[in-house]
Design a protein that fits this description.
Chain lengths: 356, 356
């Protein structure tokens, strides 16, 4: 019996993508060679890169005004690379402090220009997504973290502003439709909804590149990777391939809009059980609850270890909350089935019967 | 019948490593989960990281004076990251210009301090490895590229100097023993001798870190990754895993010294055939010939395409020379068997019989 994988990331991937990835490790594209040992400039891998780019364009309806880049270094590299490429010393960017990763993005950006933190939910342990703030018109961009993996909050309404948005979508990329025209830059570490660890997606408006005054090392310039179609140097071949397979699966299953409908249904099922079950609670502002990472706690913390092991015996794994907040977290990314969430809900109800 | 893979990189990996990698894509460590979808902080993956570090230490006899880091971004990222971390504006580093990658390293370094190019073989199309140069004592470090993948030259005698060495070993890492104590920093993109694309090995002397004056973004500091054991953010999980498997294979097959003996035997076999065969020639200074990348040409260039397709029919693939110099290149990294080189040699002799 297969496991229901609730890890926060690296996270569950579609079985179909894993099956194809396994085959490619031994024989890719009937070449008689592993995808791990072919030239990234072979026509077979160039076709993978082209298809991966085309899939991003199709899933989010992205036109040629934007470059699609497959980089390495994770979102943590984008924390400094975005302001380094977009913000001059004397310019100001707005940031929202909505969690651990947002606050790291703020820290790195401060080296490159004026950083105006428009709102923060830190004082309330990031249990809500700030909405009550003004966006000054002079901002070069407004940086958002659309989903906060650790705390379990998510932005559900994009800010009403003409200031271009820069957004870390690492943990909710391809989980719903987005108003692309509002964005100058979107970035996402792959290892949640998009693929395995080792590749970072960047969608960036071409017209804003190469406008800052500072020197930027060649490989840290977005324009370098745009000109070379993400092949300035050897790209992370296998992570890109598995991301391509995962995006094919998303497309085949109805695209981001169908993902959103499924994600809502899964999240509703789980939050309803948390709210109903006498042993569990969620302390996130209701309208900001994440559809991706459902954080919850036990009224009696002494039952936590028992519940985790009870769930593991029922094949529900990866439920331990992030070490910084404790409790429980069920990550229910695109690839998690409704059946998997139902299994967790049944497990919670059964645990309640035995322990209430 | 399996292929003999002479690609320059991403390149041939041990079949044993590929078989284990395939299994891990479906079920890693009997967890019932793919290695692509487990937390990098799970004890199963932490064990992989620990083992990968231990293997580097064992293969090169590296003590705790040095940190072992598994980063992303390839050697091209190290081109700027090394001087950014090691060289102050007013200090001078020496560089040898021995090929395309060395010259890119020089270009990136110039933004961070004084760069003294001690010698260059560019005027002779990089057909030899410079040896006739003096090393000023005041250099912060001397940067070398130990093997030039494109041109087919290799450094076989380390310079006799007390200036600490910094070396790009991307294409000959783990192919022979090295005098570790001479180095402040060694870096290598994995995708030749060490593993698949997507991870970069860094071996750096701990005592030299955090001594420069400039601001460095958190994730670009070597010390960040040393403190967090290469887990500051999500590392490239699968490329690290396959690198670990490849290093296990190296160790099981006698370590770097046995690799060196095999590599010498393979290279001798192939260079002897090139020198003997009336259709082919090699124009690299004999004592600088690479044991990893054997570049060669045909006296009659009109026969090149025919030979490549003749070889492909005999399962010898990836022989086309780099686009910048043309001709042929057989990359015979650690994982290439003597049998594979013999197959190529037989193919060359047969082609000579039919076409001389």
């Amino acid at each position: 019996m297969s496991k229901y994988n609730f890890y926060a990331g690296p996270a569950i991937l579609p079985q179909e993508a894993l099956d194809q990835a396994k085959q490619a490790v031994i024989d890719f594209d009937n070449m008689g060679l592993s995808i791990l040992e072919i030239s990234h400039r072979s026509k077979n891998f160039v076709a993978v890169m082209d298809r991966a780019e085309a899939l991003v364009r199709e899933l989010y309806n992205v036109n040629d005004e934007y470059a699609i880049l497959f980089l390495s270094g994770g979102a943590s590299t984008q924390f400094f690379m975005a302001p380094m490429n977009l913000l001059n010393e004397n310019e100001t960017a707005g940031y929202l402090d909505t969690g651990t990763w947002a606050s790291k993005a703020i820290k790195e950006a401060k080296a490159f220009g004026n950083i105006d933190v428009l709102a923060s939910s830190k004082e309330e342990n990031y249990c809500y997504y700030p909405k009550d703030y003004a966006v000054p018109n002079n901002l070069k961009y407004l940086h958002l973290t659309s989903n906060n993996t650790i705390y379990g909050t998510q932005l559900h309404v994009w800010p009403d502003t003409d200031v271009p948005l820069v957004c870390d979508m690492s943990s909710d990329i391809f989980s719903c439709e987005i108003p692309l025209e509002k964005f100058d830059l979107i970035y996402a570490g792959a290892q949640k909804n998009m693929g395995p660890a080792g590749v970072t997606l960047v969608i960036v408006k071409r017209g804003i590149l190469d406008k800052v005054d500072r020197y930027i090392p060649t490989i840290l310039r977005y324009s370098t990777h745009d000109e070379k179609k993400s092949m300035y140097n050897t790209p992370p071949v296998f992570p890109i391939y598995v991301s391509m397979l995962t995006m094919e699966w998303i497309l085949k299953n109805g695209g981001v809009n169908d993902m959103y409908e499924r994600n809502k249904a899964k999240a509703n099922l789980l939050y309803n059980e948390i709210d109903r079950n006498t042993l569990f609670y969620n302390n996130i502002n209701r309208e900001d609850r994440s559809l991706m990472n459902v954080t919850f706690h036990m009224h009696n913390e002494g039952q936590l270890a028992d519940f985790i092991s009870f769930a593991e015996k029922r094949n529900c794994v990866g439920l331990k909350g992030h070490r910084s907040i404790g409790g429980l977290r069920a990550s229910i990314y695109n690839a998690m089935s409704l059946e998997g969430v139902q299994a967790l809900v049944d497990t919670m109800a059964e645990f309640e019967k035995q322990n209430a």
